[in-house]
Amino acid sequence: MMLQEKMASISIICFFLLLLLPIAFSETTRNLDGTRASAPTVQQTRRPGREVIVDNGIIRVSFSSPQGLITGIKYKGIDNVLNPHLRARGYWDITGQGGNFRGLDSIEGTNFRIISQNEEQVEISFYRNWNGGSHIPLNVDKRYIIRKNTPGIYTYGIFERLPEWPEVDMGLIRLVFKLNPDRFHYMVVADDRQREMPTDNDRDIHLGHAKALAYKEAVQLTYPHNSIFKNQVDDKYQYTCEIKDNKVHGWISTESRVGFWLISPSGEYRSGGPIKQELTSHVGPTAITTFISGHYVGQDMETHYRTGEAWKKVLGPVFIYLNSDSTNNNPTDLLWEDAKQQTKEEVKAWPYDFVASSDYPSRKERGIVTGRLLINDRVFTPGKSAYVGLAPPGLAGSWQINFFTINNVRPGTYNLYGFVSGFIGDFRYQNHVDVAAGSKISLSTVVYEPPRNGPTLWEIGVPDRTAREFFVPEPYKNTMNPLFLNHTDKFRQYGLWERYSELYPDRDLVYTIGASNYSQDWFYAHVTRNIGDSTYVPTTWQIVFQLPYVNWRGSYTLQLALASAARANLQVRFNNEYSMPLFSTGNIGRDNAIARHGIHGIYRLYSINVPGRFLRTGTNTIYLRQAKASGPFEGLMYDYIRLEEPSRD
């Protein structure tokens, strides 16, 4: 049968995914009471301790010099919104190994300089050049910009390695703020994820305030300072967010009526693509912007540079925004709404026109890529939305009917990638896309042909790269987070993986095509079974289905899409549980999505050829065995499973 072009009615969501990059700004930012001030000034002090102070009349920011740590932010009568008891309270850091270094590098500067100072803004630099010492082999330049009439700080980092330097592996690059714990107690990640938070002291298991759980990030609050938190579970991974939605988060001091926010107007300087999950804010009070990490992906997305490879990236700018409320209204609602509005203004102003570094191209130095995405499938399935993005050349999937436009593209050579909700697989445009400054490139019509070898016999789930549609059990009453009760993200509750052993104490899950319902009968994660005494065993799920006729000479196809895998080995057998597997994934995955309350990690698609002789007329059974079982978190999540009959072409 000839392929027939189908145009899915979908919305196109564009992402520009350089592994890392820079950002932009709006000319003036609001302060809620309308305060405006004069030009920012720079003051350097040497005793006691070397310090650089920048003051624009709205905020006063103190930096250690030449290290470049933010030591103080004075705002609206608060002498320091940061934690005065910690040395590291506003800082960049990086984990990795290379040369004589292994571990965490606080990337403190060794030199200070003023990049620019005028009536509109001050830009300062704290930098460190690698000289063969014990630091990670990178040149690092941390930049801070404070503008007139702006209640906030823009910060970006320039990271560089030269080709002759030692090999380097980088697992994490981030920007971290530790806020004043006496003032900031209310945290906001999203409209439906905000709450009064416990304190860092409440998590202290050594003082007996909390009980350790299955991994160090999760604790049960047994003796918190406020009884409303008693027996609740606190875990920073309950507050992670996909990059496409991770534009603003932060903390509110309800008593001082002040908000502290981290705003990321672009995802171009973050690795992993639009649906990669990252940390946001959590108990501390802590607020984080992560640029590169292995969160929910494992080592697959760590950056490795070998001898001869040069690397230079601009990370940020990120906007540290402060706002205040002088009304008598609820400050949490007003400050959050204002932070969201400010985020819209930052996104609109991207890329910023005030960044001094020549490594950060302005709007006119960037290009535009346009095109039209069509879906070619033998079976028409309406798509919901598509993600289209540019990234450095690589394999399809390496970045994890309407027209698309990708604006403000940095000059360079790229691949065009995409995926469409409702269809399996990854798309990669066959040609490289070369973008020059000021160019406008039209790719005309781009056709994506999702993997398919024949008509669908049956399917389980929805191809959306998550396990969200499957059965997620209720949490344990004594280890829950009340924020996620009756919430669309109920999978973020602690301990849900243990429910499988209760639901299936002796026999594993059996799913019957035509009778079972995947939203009720397909557990969200294929995990091990706890048989007591910290002993876990492999589990084997069954899919039972009927075939009125089998084409013995033909080849069927099992399309098996995984949303997550953690130290797993999935074996697939047909009609004989004890035969040699027809297919095995081998040992795959370290994304930890099960333990970290994610509903997806790294997407994997396997198109498994099934010779007709493995099937029979009448009842058939597929055995899915997750064969690794040394603990509770070895397992996987399914995105979508489909059996296709042989091609009729």
Automatic annotation (TrEMBL):
InterPro entries: Gal_mutarotase_sf_dom, Galactose-bd-like_sf, GH-type_carb-bd, Polysacch_Lyase_4, RG-lyase_II, RG-lyase_III, Rhamnogal_lyase. SUPFAM superfamilies: Galactose mutarotase-like, Galactose-binding domain-like. It comes from the Eukaryota. Residues 403-442, 456-643 form the Rhamnogalacturonan lyase domain. The keyword Repeat does not apply. Keywords: Signal. Pfam families: CBM-like, fn3_3, Rhamnogal_lyase. Residues 1-26 form the signal peptide. GO terms for biological process: carbohydrate metabolic process. This is Rhamnogalacturonan endolyase. It comes from Arabis alpina (Alpine rock-cress). The lineage of its organism: Eukaryota, Viridiplantae, Streptophyta, Embryophyta, Tracheophyta.
